[in-house]
From TrEMBL:
Domain of life: Bacteria
Protein name: Uncharacterized protein
Organism: Staphylococcus intermedius NCTC 11048
Stored InterPro entries: MFS_trans_sf
Membrane-spanning segments: 38-54, 74-94, 106-123, 129-149, 161-185, 191-210
Keywords carried by this UniProt record: Membrane, Transmembrane, Transmembrane helix
Length: 214
C-alpha cells in the first residue's frame, strides 16, 4: 500500500510526459496506457537506477575490494574518478561523429565494461596492469549515464522534467544500491560479485532497450 502510494505520482508524471492527450479526450477521465513507449521509458529509468548504484558504490568500495596490494590501494579511487572525467570528456568529442543509434552505443559501452570488469576481478596480474584495466573500465563506464539521459529524452517533448526524473531515480539508485550490497554482504556474497551481478542486470536491460522497436 505504501509502495503504491509512493510510486503513483512518478507513474502519473512519466505517463503525462510520454503521451499527449487528444483535444477531444481532455474532458474524459485519463486512462493509463502501457504501450511500448511508456514501458521503454520505465526500462530506461530502471537501467539508470542500477547503473548509478555501480558508479557510486564501486568507487566508494574500491579500497575494500583488495584489487591491488596495500602499496597501490590508495590510488584506486583516484584512478576511478580520473577515468570518469576523461571518459565523459572523450564522449563529448566523439558524440557528434556517431552515425548509429545511441542505444547501440550504450550496449557497446556496457559489453566492453562487462569484460573489462571480469578481467579486473579475475585476471591474476601485476598491480600496475590492474590499475590500467581499472582506468580503461571507468573510461567506458563514464559515458553511460549521459547516454541514458540522451536516450530517454528522445521519447518525450518535455525534456527538462523527464531529465529531472532521470536524475532523481539515479539518486535513489546510489542510496538503495548501497543497501543491496550491504544485504549481499550479510549473506556472504563478496562486494565484487554484487557489482558483477548489477552490471549483468544493466547489460540485460540495455539489450531490451536496443531491441524495443517503437
Amino acid at each position: 500500500m505504501i509502495f503504491n502510494f509512493a510510486t503513483e505520482p512518478l507513474f502519473l508524471i512519466v505517463n503525462s510526459l510520454v503521451f499527449k492527450a487528444r483535444s477531444s479526450d481532455i474532458i474524459k477521465i485519463p486512462k493509463f496506457s502501457f504501450n511500448k513507449k511508456f514501458m521503454l521509458v520505465l526500462i530506461i529509468l530502471t537501467w539508470c537506477f542500477f547503473y548509478i548504484s555501480i558508479e557510486t558504490n564501486f568507487s566508494n568500495l574500491l579500497p575494500y575490494i583488495n584489487l591491488v596490494s596495500d602499496k597501490f590501494s590508495y590510488m584506486t579511487v583516484s584512478v576511478f574518478w580520473i577515468g570518469i572525467i576523461v571518459g565523459r570528456f572523450l564522449y563529448t568529442l566523439i558524440l557528434p561523429m556517431i552515425k548509429f543509434r545511441l542505444e547501440t552505443l550504450l550496449l557497446m559501452y556496457t559489453v566492453i565494461s562487462f569484460f573489462l570488469y571480469i578481467m579486473l576481478i579475475y585476471l591474476n596480474t601485476q598491480d600496475e596492469i590492474r590499475l590500467i584495466i581499472l582506468f580503461l573500465l571507468t573510461i567506458f563506464l563514464a559515458p553511460m549515464f549521459p547516454l541514458g539521459a540522451s536516450i530517454i529524452n528522445q521519447h518525450s517533448s518535455n525534456k527538462r522534467v523527464l531529465t529531472s526524473i532521470f536524475i532523481a531515480v539515479a539518486g535513489c539508485g546510489g542510496v538503495i544500491g548501497a543497501v543491496i550490497i550491504k544485504v549481499a554482504l550479510y549473506i556472504h556474497l563478496p562486494v565484487y560479485l554484487s557489482i558483477l551481478f548489477i552490471l549483468m542486470v544493466c547489460l540485460i536491460l540495455n539489450t531490451v532497450i536496443l531491441r524495443t522497436k517503437l
